[in-house]
Amino acid sequence: MLKKIECIVQPFKLKEIKEGFREIAIDGMTITDVSGCGKQKGHLKNIKSDKSINFLPKVKIEIVTEEERVEDIIDVIQRLARTGHIGAGKIFVLPVEDVIRVRTRERGRSAIE
Amino acid sequence: MAFNLWHNALELLDNVAKKINLNEVAHKRLSKCVRELTVSVPIRLDNGSFEVFTGYRVQHNTHRGPSKGGIRFHPDVTLDEVKALAMLMTWKCAVVGIPYGGAKGGVICDPAKMSIGEIERLTRRYTSEIIMVIGPERDIPAPDMNTNPQIMAWIMDTYSMDKGYVVPGVVTGKPISVGGSQGREEATGRGVTYTTLNTLKHFNMDIENTSIVIQGYGNVGGATAELLYKEGCKIIGVGDVYGSIYNPQGLDITKLSKHLAKTGTVTKYKDADSIENKDLLELKCDVLIPAALEGQIREDNAEKIKAKIIIEAANGPITNEADSILKQKDIYIVPDILANAGGVAVSYFEWVQGLQSYFWSKREVNLKLRDIMTKAFYDVLAISEKENVDMRMAAYMLAVGRVAEAIKIRGLYP
Which residues of A touch B361 (CB under 8 A)? Predict the structure, then answer.
């Protein structure tokens, strides 16, 4: 079963996380600069009365992997993306129906290995 | 204590009935078990002589689905005890919303004094004696005190031989090689872990600053310790039958589990102080998780409990008298029928997988278990807050209400 891990993290944590992935032999990923907001609507403190929405810059990392590796990858992100403050990020796990490697036409597991 | 368990169960039902205005029909029907079977189980012993054992299988209720419940082998088994435990299973299945009624079985015997061969013959003959009331669509046994995956495999094999084809769905808690489920072994501990995390979230407690004490380090306590440790909790004390250990800075559970695998006990672990088992329960901590035997927190030690929250991983670890004392001390108790229902939930998954002959990955099992446990926690919490009752009463109100609803909708035959 293939899964996609999509995580949103603080940009300054990217380098460490990339290192962490290398240590557990994850080599394929897609990185995108994104901006968005969460429960605090982009404010750095917990201000419930302010109704304005503010977008903060973040980095999105996407990895497609075998189901058995999902927990290891989550562990790395959880450990290295932590800042101790709000806005450290989120991790999403999604099902992936299929993967095709264009060059070789390989499908499924062999397309990501 | 065993002789009045059934009366306690009835008393509890009466109390809940008053709270939810249970209609008379449902109350009367739930005060009786739908079927109580007593069987004699003759087997040949290794020394050539033979013995006749007594066994029971009781189905308390089947309004929400086929009945489900463990089989125990123990010298103190009585019909009243089996009836009370069958009723408890009805409530447990209803609280977590899985489509089962409640049952329980037992054989009066002392497996510690029996050979493996004798236990196998006892299991097979007992299965054969209750075969007319069990089955994947009738009543599905599972492991309980002194019964294990191997014994479940013998039940499955005996039933299958009788039918003439393989029926994996007749029993749960089987080894994986004959249709068991991934994640079944640690399921109760995993369910306790989810319940603990949900409770901490409810109180806005920071996981890393939460100190936890776990009594019992077997299938349930050990798995709970490992999983909570992985989540970042500080486990400051644990104990098994041989003794207890304490480290206010938090135990390294990974190292402790290695020590246990080597020595067979958590005692004599070097990075902790040894303490008496009775002192373990009285340690100052945020969360106490009794995961050993019933009746551990009693009238005589309840006053000394210093935990803020108790998660009942074992069945009935707090006596009724102790429960009132703890309530006065404002200790928040998450009851057994909610907290330790992870076992029966994954049993349900095993049964579903067996029926469809299609097996799930461990991740899939764990995610589904988390959904069930979390939903059940918030269902009970909602009743507790709305009706202003403790979590135990709320869980029973939810459970009895669900069964009563099924009784009302199905009506009376003929």
Answer: 1, 67
Each residue's pLDDT tens digit, B40-68? 999 999 999 999 999 999 999 999 999 99
The pTM of the full predicted model, rounded to 2 decimals, is 0.93
Nearest chain A alpha carbon to B362: A68
At B348 the three-state DSSP class reads helix
- What does the pLDDT read at residue B381? 98
Nearest to B15 by CA among B324, B311, B308, B302: B324
Tokens of B270: 């070097």
**Which residues, in sequence order, are CB contacts of B161 under 8 Å at separation 6+?**
none
What is the distance between the alpha carbons of residues B35 and B58, in angstroms, rounded to a whole number? 6
Amino acid in the structure at residue B383: I
Query: Which site among B182, B360, B363 would you substitute to test the A interface, given the most A Cβ atoms closer than 10 Å to its Cβ?
Result: B363
A29–B contact, CB cutoff 8 A: no
Task: Round to whole Å and give the CA distance between B13 and B8.
Answer: 9
- The answer to ipTM > 0.90 is no
Q: Does A72 touch chain B (CB under 8 A)?
A: no
Label residue A25 left, alpha or beta by phi (over 0 means left) and psi (-120 to 50 means alpha): left
Q: Please check whether residue B10 is in contact with residue B400, taking contact to mean a CB–CB distance below 8 angstroms.
A: no
Please report which confidence band the pLDDT of residue B3 belongs to, taking 50, 70 and 90 as the band edges: very low
> Smallest CA–CA separation between A65 and chain B, in Å?
14
Q: Are A38 and A53 in contact (CB under 8 A)?
A: no
Q: Tens digits of per-residue pLDDT, A31-89?
A: 999 999 887 777 666 656 666 788 999 999 999 999 999 999 999 999 999 998 888 99
| Catalytic residue check, B104 | yes
Average per-residue pLDDT in chain B?
96
**How far off is chain B from A103, nearest CA to CA, in Å?**
31
Q: Which one, of B116, B124, B110, lies nearest residue B39 by Cα?
A: B124
State the DSSP H helix or E strand holding residue B37, giving kind and residue range, or none if neither.
strand B35-44
A98 touching B, CB under 8 A? Answer: no
Decide if B33 contacts B86 (C-beta within 8 A).
yes
Residues in chain B whose beta carbon is closer than 8 A to a beta carbon of chain A?
361, 363
Give the distance from residue A19's alpha carbon to the nearest chain B alpha carbon, in angstroms: 22
Chain A residues close to B363, C-beta within 8 Å = 67, 70-71
Q: Which residue of A has its CA nearest to B360?
A: A1
Sheet containing A89-96, strands listed edge to edge, beginning at the edge strand earlier in sequence: A30-36, A56-66, A2-9, A89-96
Question: Got the DSSP string for B357-411?
Answer: T----HHHHHHHHHHHHHHHHHHHHHHHHHHT--HHHHHHHHHHHHHHHHHHHH-
Q: What does the DSSP 8-state code read for residue B316?
A: S
* A71 contacts in chain B (CB < 8 Å): 363
The H or E element that residue B310 is part of is strand B309-311
Host H or E run for residue B334? strand B332-334
